[in-house]
Design brief:
By secondary structure, the protein is of the alpha+beta class. It has one helix at 37-50; strands spanning 20-23, 26-28, 54-57, 63-68.
Length: 75
């Protein structure tokens, strides 16, 4: 991004992509993190090295298909 360019507001679409409203307080920002993708993936890998991904189990005993990890004082 040129030094004289202002960063986009969190709710402003990037590259002309439409902003998709998912709910009253949720929007999909297509391409918002594209410029920092490698840095963000490296950060997730760093977190996963300390707190590995795991599949949670529901109260009924079923393993969830989505894995999660967490970090920080409150996870």
């Amino acid at each position: 991004m040129p030094s004289d360019a202002l960063p986009l507001a969190p709710d402003e679409p990037r590259d002309g992509a439409p902003r998709v409203t998912l709910g009253p307080r949720a929007v999909l920002l297509r391409g918002f993190a594209r410029e920092r993708a490698l840095e963000l993936v490296a950060a997730v890998v760093s977190v996963a090295a300390v707190s590995p991904f795991r599949h949670m189990v529901t109260p009924g005993g079923w393993e969830m298909s989505v894995a999660m990890t967490n970090c920080g004082q409150v996870g």
